[in-house]
Amino acid sequence: MNIAHIVCSYPPYYGGMGNVVLETANGLSKLGHDVEVITPKYVGGVENEKGITRLESIVKFGNAARLSKISSELDKFDIVHLHYPFFGTANLVRRWKLKNTNKPLFVTYHMDTRAPGWKGLIFKLYTKFWMPKILNSADKLIVSSFDYLESSDANNLYKKNKDKWLELPFGVDIERFYPQPKSGALFDQLGLSKDIPIIIFVGGMDEAHYFKGVPVLLKSLAFLKGQKMPLQAIFVGDGELKEGFEKKAEFYGISENTRFVGRISDEELPLYYNLADLCILPSINRGEAFGLVLVEAMASGVPVLATDLPGVRSVAQDGGFIVEPNNTEALARGIFDYFSKNIDELKLKEQVRKIAIEKYSLDVVVKSLEDEYKKFVD
Description:
Blueprint: E1 2-6, H1 16-30, E2 34-40, E3 52-55, E4 60-61, E5 64-65, H2 70-74, E6 79-84, H3 90-99, E7 105-109, H4 117-136, E8 140-143, H5 146-149, H6 155-160, E9 165-167, H7 184-190, E10 198-202, H8 214-226, E11 232-236, H9 242-252, E12 258-262, H10 269-275, E13 278-281, H11 292-299, E14 304-307, H12 312-319, E15 320-323, H13 328-340, H14 345-360, H15 362-374
Parallel strand pairs: 1-2, 1-6, 2-3, 6-7, 7-8, 8-9, 10-11, 10-13, 11-12, 13-14, 14-15
Antiparallel strand pairs: 4-5
């Protein structure tokens, strides 16, 4: 099959949606399909990539972009798969579908849109007026968990037509993310101690990812330092908020044992996960719907601690622990309890790896998606 995946952001931009599409496209390609990812072109972005079409956008704001030429790109595909939200372009795909009713359109509903201030108001209006039209134009709708969908902005659409929806979790390459010995060279490079526990956070540090909860985690680390708990922290990710986070770490007096490593390569990421004893996802609201980093950590044999948010909790409760969102003390207590209580860490590491293989293996997830595609293509 000739398949198009349309997404608002894509590597090297650091974000969950783009990484999901990257892994999915690679998996479908291995099954013999021709896959093209269509995404906005960024200044300083990568050029001439095989299987990727980066379109110019006259209007662009954050991850929103209007790809005015997208309609002319879609006619050649057997399957068109839109990843929502994609402000500025999702409605153009809907219009294309109205003119091409014989072409199957899949839409993955990644998350509700949330933002503070005036941007949040725009999101709310868009969700009320355009989101139902866009989702209703699809032949098949996909969500990473029904737990998230049942309390999401799309819940009414789900209740009206449950048969149209498919629950399909995001998968990871379990041969890329797997348990391996902690890298002594990486310990030395980061200047970290092998004798002090390490937590890791992986995520975007730009305005589009404000909901990741980094300030809450930093404050929790400061609280734990006040409790004389020895702990080291690695923050992986980049964006315009990173410098402010580093200043917060200095202000809280935790910078000595905190490392902001910025963007790292795909090859390095598994090594960083394996350096950690616990992966933290402290997201504060429904902008977080799944938490692919949790699955990457679990596949690496690293237990996880995340917040009690729909979708996120369905992953975290399998591979670790959940705490109340946006609560500094609850997060600090969760971290403290993990390292202080008599937990069989070896058994837990084996358990989370097993869960990742059984529930989130990329091969299994992509095969399920392929089977769904085949129902719509002769």
